[in-house]
Specification:
Elements (H helix, E strand, L loop, with lengths): L2 H6 L3 H50 L1 H6 L2 H9 L7 E7 L5 E6 L15 E5 L2 E10 L2 E11 L1 H53 L13 H35 L4 E6 L4 E4 L1 H7 L11 H4 L2 H17 L3 E7 L6 E11 L5 E10 L1 H23 L3 E6 L4 E4 L1 H7 L3 H4 L4 H4 L7 H10 L3 E10 L2 E14 L2 E10 L1 H47 L5 H9 L4 H10 L2 H26 L7 E3 L1 H12 L15 E6 L6 E3 L1 H21 L8 E8 L3 E8 L6 H6 L17 H12 L3 E7 L3 E9 L2
Parallel strand pairs: 17-19
Antiparallel strand pairs: 1-2, 1-5, 3-4, 4-5, 6-7, 6-10, 8-9, 9-10, 11-12, 11-15, 13-14, 14-15, 16-18, 19-20, 20-22, 21-22
Helix pairs in contact: 2-5, 5-6, 15-18, 19-20, 20-22
Length: 746
């Protein structure tokens, strides 16, 4: 152990005493040294001045001896130095530097035989040499060299050193006494603080406080230490509360929780651990697996701990453990705990009884399989989509529809797998955004050389953080065919009524007209001999008769009859075209022209039982001037208008108010995105309960045999389903009924 370590390990009292003594002694040593140097310098200065005075006196007394070159007189003058104890030798040199007279004591320093060149005082070999020039009236007569012993200087230095040592000892004693007293004042707060810290370290009692003995830095240190203890006590209390809370939390956890250090000693366990391990009263903390389990089990646990430390990450394993109620399955997870520097300092383990979860998973798996079977057994194609339009679910019917398996289709975009349904993606976004089911849309496309019809309904899936939709695709080809058959049936019923009217109104007159025209033309022809003969018998000619007919415009009338026949032929042609089966081909058409054409067809409908005739009905038309052509199925639209006209005509034929002339008002107008058609009559009107059911299939207020009840329901289906429009009715009893139709422009 070096001196520095020894000093560092001293108590603060001894350190303070040592520091004060060392500082004091060092100060006294410096002061004594300076004082000694000063005394030495002062003594040398005084000695040189004293010797110079003596040399001056001897030199003055030696002038006569030098002037007369008298060695005896010079020696007598030098011997006068014997009275001075410090003087050891003297030599008087003449003007040429030769020795004139010389004196010395025993063992004195030998002086040189010639006069030195220098002048002044010098110290050599323990003697002080003084060279003085003997001058008389400005002329150098000779040189005086004296040698003085330094014994006086040594005696002076010894006396000075004695005084300094004595003062040093006295001062050291006084300093020691004062240091003993002063260090106690300084070290007392520190010792008090150290004592409190020692007691806190031993007892862990952070309620202890250090007494503040002064207001200086040490007193402030005690105050700061007490404040620190306040914070430490608060944190210790909080730590104890948190530790208790942590213990309470893990004790109430259903899982087994424990904490080990790197040597395998248990640092923390919860109540569930004690219950599972069946250790209650015995202390577990500080023990290892070898102390608690069999050697085989302990080896398994230790190996798992080693693997956790080696991998440095979470490790999970399932294990089966015996239980009173049967074997239970545990999910054991171990992971390392790291400090702020990323170093592993402990291992945390959590074992959870997942027996019920495993059972629930099995039940959930069975339920999922059952639901999958239900979904796959559905006759509809069910397609799950996420918010981006990617496929998430795909049942067997969807596989049959696309030819792709669920694995192949999952994750693909709908428009890449089933491009015929890509237009439904917009409804998918609307369903997710509005969280409402989007109405069914009918999609038609060619498949295996025939037209098929699919009905697509979009259901939103917006719950539990899942955003998406389900497309239900139903094959409605047969239903569409049945609907078309219903339309055709209703159309044929209408055609039957038209045929009866035409047979009565057109066919018979047309036959008579055609036959009459043919006979008239034959009767006025000059190419027929019988005509010529009869004309001659009557006293005229065929030419005269023809001239008469022309002048009397009979031939013009015949031409009118021919035109009427052409119109009748046109009516028959329109009826034949209307009676043909519709292929649901849409085309752009002008609404007013279609309505006028339908009115022309209806004007030829005559019901022998009801006795209604469109010729007796006042038809008012109000068509907007800026109506565009819209895309629709012409024959279906004509059928709707014809059904409405017939219903209005039949209703007005049944009213009892014969004073009011039957009238039908037809109005066509448009707004930003639709064309609106209203057909209003002044018939008897309908009750509210009848209005609610008027579009229901097979609902009719007519007697048995007078109607099927399909006319308005088929019309409603044509407008709403086939043309994506709307149809509604309003009626007031005694005032009339109005049907309103809205068709989208696009």
């Amino acid at each position: 152990m070096n001196k520095r370590s020894v000093f560092i390990n001293l108590s603060i009292r001894k350190k303070l005493l040592s520091v004060m003594m060392i500082a004091s002694c060092f100060a006294m040593l410096v002061t004594g040294s300076v004082f000694t140097l000063y005394q030495t310098f002062y003594f040398n200065s005084q000695l040189a001045q004293h010797l110079s005075s003596i040399a001056e006196v001897i030199a003055n007394n030696s002038k006569a001896a030098l002037a007369f070159m008298d060695p005896a007189d010079g020696l007598d003058t030098l011997k006068s130095l014997e009275t001075i104890d410090s003087m050891t030798a003297a030599t008087l040199y003449d003007e040429q530097g030769a020795v004139l007279a010389s004196w010395k004591r025993d063992n004195a320093l030998a002086l040189p035989g010639t006069a030195p060149e220098w002048q002044g005082t010098r110290e050599r070999d323990g003697h002080i040499l003084v060279v003085w020039k003997v001058v008389e009236k400005g002329q150098i007569l000779g040189t005086l060299l004296m040698s003085s012993s330094t014994s006086e200087k040594a005696i002076f230095l010894k006396k000075s050193l004695f005084v300094i040592v004595l003062l040093f000892l006295i001062t050291a004693m006084i300093t020691f006494v004062l240091a003993q007293y002063l260090q106690a004042i300084i070290s007392r707060p520190v010792n008090s603080l150290a004592d409190v810290m020692t007691r806190i370290s031993e007892t862990q009692d952070y309620s202890l406080r250090s007494k503040q003995l002064s207001d200086d830095e040490l007193g402030q240190l005690s105050g700061f230490f007490n404040e620190m203890l306040d914070r430490v006590e608060d944190r210790d209390n909080q730590l104890q509360e948190n530790r208790g809370l942590l213990q309470a939390i893990i004790d109430n956890a259903g899982s087994v929780i424990y904490l080990k250090d790197l040597d395998g000693h248990y640092l923390l366990v919860n109540r569930r651990y004690r219950e599972v391990v069946a250790i209650h009263g015995e202390e577990i903390l500080g023990r290892t697996d070898y102390d608690l389990f069999s050697h085989e089990q302990a080896e398994k646990f230790v190996a798992l701990d080693a693997r956790t430390l080696a991998q440095g990450e979470l490790i999970e394993e399932e294990e089966v453990a015996p239980h009173a109620e049967g074997d239970h399955i545990y999910l054991s997870a171990k992971f390392p705990l790291r400090d702020a520097n990323g170093e592993i300092y402990a291992i945390c383990g959590i074992s959870t009884d997942i027996t019920e979860r495993k059972q629930a998973e099995n039940e959930l798996r069975q339920l999922r399989n059952y639901l999958d079977n239900v979904i796959d057994s559905m006759p509809s194609a069910l397609i799950g989509l996420d918010a981006e339009g990617k496929i998430t679910r795909w049942n067997h019917e969807a596989e049959r529809l696309s030819g792709l398996s669920s694995k192949e289709a999952t994750g693909c975009l709908l428009n890449s797998v089933l491009p015929q349904f890509s237009v439904q993606l917009e409804k998918v976004h609307q369903a997710i955004k509005q969280r409402q089911v989007q109405d069914s849309a009918r999609v038609s496309y060619a498949e295996d050389g025939r037209n098929v019809f699919k009905e697509v309904t979009v259901y939103p899936l917006v719950a539990n953080g899942i955003e998406g939709a389900v497309l239900r695709v139903d094959d409605v080809t047969e239903r569409v065919q049945i609907e078309e058959m219903m339309i055709q049936t209703e159309k044929m019923m209408s055609v039957g009524g038209l045929a009866a009217g035409m047979a009565h109104e057109i066919n018979n007159p047309l036959g008579i007209m055609i036959q009459a025209v043919q006979n008239i033309e034959r009767r006025v022809s000059q190419e027929i001999p019988a005509n010529v003969r009869v004309a001659e018998e009557c006293g005229t000619t065929v030419a005269v008769i023809k001239c008469y007919l022309e002048k009397r415009m009979v031939l013009t009338m015949i031409e009118d009859i021919r035109e009427a026949g052409a119109r009748a032929a046109k009516i028959v042609a329109n009826m034949l075209q209307f009676s043909r089966r519709s292929e649901s081909a849409t085309q752009y058409a002008n609404i007013p022209e279609l309505i006028d054409k339908t009115i022309e067809l209806a004007a030829n409908d005559y019901d022998l039982k009801k006795k209604f005739d469109f010729r007796h009905i006042d038809i008012k038309r109000e068509y907007a001037s800026d109506l565009p052509e819209i895309k629709l199925v012409v024959t279906e639209f004509e059928q709707v208008i014809l059904n409405l006209l017939k219903n209005s005509a039949q209703a007005m034929a049944e009213q009892k108010d014969i004073d009011r002339k039957p009238q039908i008002s037809i109005r066509v107008e448009k707004d930003m995105d639709s064309v609106h058609i209203s057909l209003q009559d002044n018939g008897p009107g309908m009750e509210k309960n009848v209005c609610k059911r008027v579009f229901e299939p097979f609902f009719t207020t007519k007697p048995v045999g007078s109607g099927t009840g399909l006319g308005l329901s088929v019309s409603y289906m044509i407008i709403t389903n086939n043309h994506k429009g709307s149809m509604e009715v309003e009626s007031v009893v005694g005032e009339g009924t109005v049907f309103r139709i809205s068709l989208p422009l696009v």
